[in-house]
Amino acid sequence: MVVHRLTKDEARRIAVHAQLLDAPRPTDLVDIVDRLTLLQIDPTAIIAPSADLVLWSRLGSTYDPADLTKAIECDRTLVETVAYIRSPRDVPAVIAEVRDASTYAFTASWLETNEPFRRDILALLGKEGPLLSRDIPDTSVAPWPSSGWTNNRNVTKMLESLALRGHVAISGRKGRQRYWDLPERVYPAGLPILDLDAAVQHRNERRLAALGIARSSGPQMPGEPPYVGDAGEEAYVTGIPGSWRVHPAYVGLPFEGRTALLSPFDRLIHDRVRAAQLFDFEYLLEMYKPKDKRRWGYFALPVLHGDRLVGKLDATADRKAGTLVINAIHEDVHFTEAMTAAVRAEIDELAAWLGLEVTGV
Question: Does residue 149 carry a pLDDT above 60?
Fold first, then answer.
């Protein structure tokens, strides 16, 4: 049994390399998403939507958001699932994990009661799809408790439940609204049907390839878990308690770093405990905090320099004024002249990509 002994520098470089944030930059959008396994969809666009920021931080200013739309809606080389954009080859495992895992009792009861509603939706999509949720009648037998949410919540809840289980699929968007259709008209032909064990193994191996180094298991957290089971090989990192799993292909590779501005939802920093342990980096998304309680800003972008997370950029895209307003650059470590120049150059690149002029600090 191979057990790796890594310094923190080595562990960080593995993590940065796995996330395609070292040099040279990758060049293919679809290959990037396949490597990362997902792009999280979040509508916040104080600078740009998170999925676009993640791709810009890898591709640079050659990235055009229209290319992502084309890959999803025309080429079908990528697919949108509930809350994420993924490679099609990961869809069978994602579906199997939901389909074959235990369902919360309330959700299971609601779906069972609304079986006629499910059949109505599938029949309508089969005849007239793709359709927006607003164009699908609400024939639910029992409503989903909405607590003041939109009047169409029953339809949306059923569609998302069906999509998670592979009965419907998201075929595209009209603005922020999703088009829904039957999966055989959206997903590539020939995708396998996996059982739960095969799905978990697939997901763990793919997740480790994306993260490079990760914990085997840990506390439950919302969204995509950052744990990888027994994928890869065991590793210990100097100065950090407990064992890790590491992707063996990344161990010992030469490393060339670069500077990057990251989305708050970037997978390099998404697991805050891992970011603190490997990078000594403290981060909290503060958009839900009152303004006077924020330390770093509404949508602060983590700053990567080489193999270190060194600060946060508090910036706002004022599209009416045509400016990228720099409110603050928070230095977690003292910036050398070279670091300052590299961060400033990346800010200029971000502004140019957005078609804005830099103002502020």
Answer: no
